[in-house]
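Hi team,

As requested, here is the filled-out complex form for the adenosine-5'-diphosphate run. I kept the field names the same as last time so the parser does not choke. Let me know if anything looks off before we queue the next batch.

— J.
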Amino acid sequence: MDQRGVTLWFTGLSGAGKTTISKAVAEALRAKGYKLEILDGDVVRTNLTKGLGFTKEDRDENIRRIGFVSRILTRNDAIVLVSAISPYREIREEVREKIGNFVEVYVNAPLNVCEGRDVKGLYKRARSGDIKGFTGIDDPYEPPIDPEVECRTDLEDESESVAKVLKKLEELGYFAQASAVPAV
Ligand code: ADP
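And here is what came back:
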């Protein structure tokens, strides 16, 4: 199928819902016949960016490498779904500029909601001091100023969040248009 490459970049606190929403968006896109790749921060850190830590420098390097892979996939017409906390605005803007076809999805839930979910038990460990430099606790998160999509996962359910992302892709012209002239 004809498709235009684009990177969907899901940013937000741990537990905000980036992985959940991006997986569901991927399923919906696959069902429509689109080709895509998923770069999930947790998975990427076990291979592409293995060995990097959580200082600002290492976090930026992590994002730069994910951005590099996203760029070459996007320019080959893949749809790329990145889910990574990506707490720093400047590096997100840098990868946006490099990739060009870039849709930022701010997956937003208040810290207390993310912490209440504590999907991976990391907030508990951060509060007890077992993990240092945890985003939202003792490390910064700089929210996007003008994201293409904002999903408020404390106020909307997963299907609403997914629908918002798909609607934006359609608005931006990333879905193949049915041919105006029927084949004869
Ligand atoms: P992240 O990838 O941002 O760390 P996860 O997707 O792993 O977050 O976890 C988010 C949790 O929040 C999941 O347990 C999910 O079921 C729950 N959740 C509740 N409401 C929503 C929503 N509207 N969208 C996405 N996840 C939601």
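Two things worth flagging: Residues 12, 14-21, 83, 107, 117, 119, 153, 156-158, 161 surround adenosine-5'-diphosphate (CB under 6 Å). The helical segments are 18-31, 41-44, 56-74, 89-99, 111-117, 122-127, 158-171.

Thanks,
J.
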